[in-house]
Design brief:
InterPro entries: Acyl-CoA_DS, FADS-1_CS. Helices cover 58% and strands 0% of the residues. With 224 residues, the chain is mainly α. The longest helix is centred in the N-terminal third of the chain and has 27 residues. The N and C termini lie far apart (56 Å).
Length: 224
């Protein structure tokens, strides 16, 4: 609706068309990809199509394919119960969008562990889309864990989620990276800093610099 309002008010045709394209591509990633292909296996797709649908799904911003399919299979098996991720008895907003904004009910997690997802773990596209940050990159803070600092994710996702090795080593650091937005591509850290500047965010937790340096030295020794 806001896009329509902007189009009518500003008459920015290019922006409006881009919004439509983005929205429909993201929608296809969910409907043709995560829903009908991966969650229900209602058809088969060759590798190029699976890669395209996985990319479209990323545009939708609805977790990863593996988690979406697990939740959807739980939804079908335990509809309208506490184990249903988007339980319709919790209201219209929750069942359509709200479920993506809150923590899952404990029953959802419990029943999710009972669902067979072996077909998804066998699909390399699903594994890549879910675990790219665990396969490629470097590990300057902890060399014995799989999460890595991924240049690919850092560039493709400037929100600051590519510093995975640091984040898993120091999960309490609000920046999720060592240097913050002024030395690293990290829009989320910049946003939180801005909110702190105007008094809307506070008690920002960071990792102790000496501890970070010790981890870097230890990781370097383990790699040599």
């Amino acid at each position: 609706f806001y896009g329509v309002y902007l189009f009518l008010k500003e008459k920015d045709t290019l922006l409006f068309c881009w919004q439509l394209i983005w929205g429909y591509l993201g929608g296809l990633g969910v409907t043709a990809g995560a829903h009908r292909l991966w969650a229900h296996r209602s058809y088969k797709a060759r590798l190029p199509l699976r890669i395209f649908l996985a990319y479209c799904f990323i545009l939708a911003g609805q977790n990863d394919i593996y988690e979406w399919c697990r939740d959807h299979r739980v939804h079908h098996k335990f509809s309208d119960t506490d184990a249903d991720p988007h339980n319709s008895t919790r209201g219209f907003f929750f069942s359509h969008m709200g479920w993506l904004c809150v923590r899952k009910h404990l029953k959802v997690k419990e029943k999710g562990r009972t669902i067979d997802l072996s077909d998804l773990t066998r699909d390399p596209v699903v594994r890549l889309q879910r675990n790219a940050a665990h396969y490629w990159g470097y590990r300057p803070y902890a060399s014995k864990i799989s999460p890595r600092e991924s240049p690919f994710v850092i560039v493709c996702n400037p929100l600051g989620e590519g510093f995975h090795n640091y984040h898993h080593t120091f999960p309490q650091d609000y920046k999720a990276s060592e240097y913050g937005w002024f030395l690293q591509l990290n829009i989320t850290a910049a946003f939180i800093d801005l909110m702190a500047l105007i008094g809307q965010a506070y008690d920002l937790k960071t990792a102790d610099k000496k501890t970070v340096e010790l981890h870097k030295i230890r990781a370097l020794k383990c790699q040599n």
